[in-house]
Amino acid sequence: MSAKISTPRRLAAFYSHFPLKTLPEVEGRRPSAATPTLWIQPAPSSPLSADVDCLAAQALLALLGKHVALRTDLTAQGAVDGRLPNLQLPDGQLLPAHAIANWAGAPAEVDEARAWVSLLRSSIRPALLLHAPRQSLLDWSRGKRDEWRALLSPPPPPATGLGSPLPVFGTRVDVEGVRHQFAAALHALADRLGRDQWFLGASSPTALDATVFAYLHCAMKVPELRASIDAFPALVKWEQHVRAKVLDVKHQQSGYDV
Amino acid sequence: MDDDDENLLSGPAPLRAPLANTSSPRDAEPEDDIEVLLRWQEDRMKRRLAGEYESAVVRIAELVNGNLDAPARISAVRVLGATTTRPGFLHALIAPHLGEQATFGDALHATRGIVESLARTDAFTGVAPTLALATSPLAKPGDLDVLLHVREHSRFYFRTATELGDGEGSASATGRIRNVFGGAETLAASVSFGTKTRHSFTATFAAPIVTGKHLNTRAELQVYGSHLDNESWASSSEEIEGVKTAIRRDTPWGTHEFAYELAQRHICGLLPSASLSMREQARDTTKSALSHTFVHDSRVESSAGRLGPYLKLSQELAGVALGGDAAHLKGEAHASFSGRFFPGTTLSLSTRAGLLYPLAPSRQTLFSDRFQLGGPLSVRSMRWNGLGARDGPDSLGGDLYWAAGVSLIGDIPRKPHWPLKTHAWVNAGRLDGLDLARRPLADQIRATLASPSVTAGVGLIFNHGLARAEINFGVPLVAAKSDRVVKGLQVGVGLEFL
């Protein structure tokens, strides 16, 4: 229970005279977008994002025929929940990643789709992380270790052990295990896709198709993983087909209005 | 020759009985109370000693002044007690003073210069010079040895403190090592935790640069980091880590500092309510910049605060060939003057201005480099950083600002010695962004000067050394729609006020 002290009436009446003169608002450059704008991480020399989650959102909006502008100059630090992609709406709202599919009107995910997304996350994402470019010494510290612990079950042990005088740092990943799981996931994907145009036999693209495309596209950028994917021509052909559809949608780079 | 003279000249003084009264009537020796008598004798002893001391000083002064033109030369300088100071450093300090000497006056002048140079190193708590006849077998008649008895500062120093800064309080721990390599170098490190600056650290290595007789140049290398809590006005936090190297030179007009700074800034920790403008600015940026700062501060402490003139000019060039994300030319000026107005009152005039000119191709400046204005330490009756462009709850800062203040500070009636003073003030200021694509710079400067926010009020000031606390009752007279005004009471604690 909070006690609020109200301004005495006479004092409030005195304050009401001020300011004696009011000037117009100070002009400032505030970002606004005439069309919905998707904030994504960029990729060098490609209109498709290099980040799996951002590419999945980009692909979903394209496959559902939603015309959005793109912004690649923003970082995850400025995003809602610290995670890209975000969707900026003309009314000033900024939607987090998990709300984009709902805004786009994507059909609700069925249980099997959720299971496939979980498989992709636990089997393909570790392989992408294994081959991610080393950014700095900080990769050995808390940041990257937390990523591995979130992806793998059980979480991988640290690089230093009980017998080491060094403080806990780094991660000891079972590289062969990760590669084996990656290959098994590709096999399962190829089997499930079969000759269908869209996953799970859907008649139109769903969020699962966008997610699978994002993972496959990012994996095909890694030479070591590309060789594994080439063993499944159906997946390669499917990825090319979806990529063509995504790139076919005209994306305009957004300038922002003042 | 009369009888008295004969008595004085003839033989020893006559014997007197024990405890006979030998005082003369002029002494006015008390006769009654023993305690009073003892006090009288003590006072007489003190008077006699003071008189003897003054006589000795007068005699020495006469002796010195009478022999200033006597031929003399310093043949050797010995420094006694400098156990941790390098001989080479001492030689570099002393040698420039040992020029051509022909007279005793020259030798005294050189000795004074040497003592001043040693004192300026801040490595010694005391320097006591002594002149003695030269003891070297090679010395000529009239040669002198200068003996300098020095007491070095304690080498290690550690302190914990709670402090009040500009609008914030903090707790800190500071460690310092003097005379690190024997050349009056200082290595200091400090860690602090505060209300606005959540945590910060600095490590500074400073050393004097010996150039001629006047030890007025210092070099400094500093590594620093801080975490600033800007949630109340920018829905974010800012982390800064950097390294700065500077050369500082004292001149009769003031102090010049030339510096290079490389800093990494992170805008992070956004609140869920952060505006789109702040989300755009949330990123890592680097600043690589050269700067020059000139400060002239001849203010003196008084019960009414610091009186006198103060001027600070600073310029900074970032980016371009220096690299980094920040690219701008920044200039800032602070000027103030305080003086007695009429008995019991002090008039204080203060003005500040700054320009941040973008040099990046996008013609945009970064949030970390922009100016902020408003609050109890600048334009009163405005919230902290309450002027300028806003986006929702966030203050976006600006590229062009000016602020001016007039304060009349008076003594509390019948209590002029109190550090508590009355205060009446008028402040004005304006903070704008630059849009060079739309309007020329001159037009924007004119518009900024022509449309300030103006506030006025009265209050009380408490002066405590360098810091000052104010409690004011003020109102905005002229304000922009976007200004965050404070009507009524406002408290401010800090070092520099408008």
From TrEMBL, chain A:
In terms of domain of life, where is this protein from? Eukaryota
Organism of derivation: Exidia glandulosa HHB12029
- Record's Gene3D superfamilies? 1.20.1050.10
Name of this protein: Metaxin glutathione S-transferase domain-containing protein
Tell me which InterPro entries the record gives: Glutathione-S-Trfase_C_sf, Metaxin_GST
Q: Name one Pfam family in it.
A: GST_C_6
Domain Metaxin glutathione S-transferase residue range list: 184-241
Automatic annotation (TrEMBL), chain B:
Q: Where in the cell is it found?
A: Mitochondrion outer membrane
* Superkingdom assignment: Eukaryota
* Keyword match 4Fe-4S: no
Which topology term describes how it sits in the membrane? Answer: Multi-pass membrane protein
- Which keywords are on file for this protein? Membrane, Transmembrane, Transmembrane beta strand
GO cellular component term, pick one: mitochondrial outer membrane
Name the coiled-coil region(s): none
InterPro entries, from UniProt? Answer: Bac_surfAg_D15, D15-like
Q: Where in this protein does the record put region Disordered? A: 1-32
Pfam families recorded: Omp85
Q: Name one GO biological process term.
A: protein insertion into mitochondrial outer membrane
In what residue span(s) does the Bacterial surface antigen (D15) domain sit?
Answer: 179-497
Q: Which family does it belong to?
A: Belongs to the SAM50/omp85 family.
**What is this protein identified as?**
Bacterial surface antigen (D15) domain-containing protein
Which source organism? Exidia glandulosa HHB12029
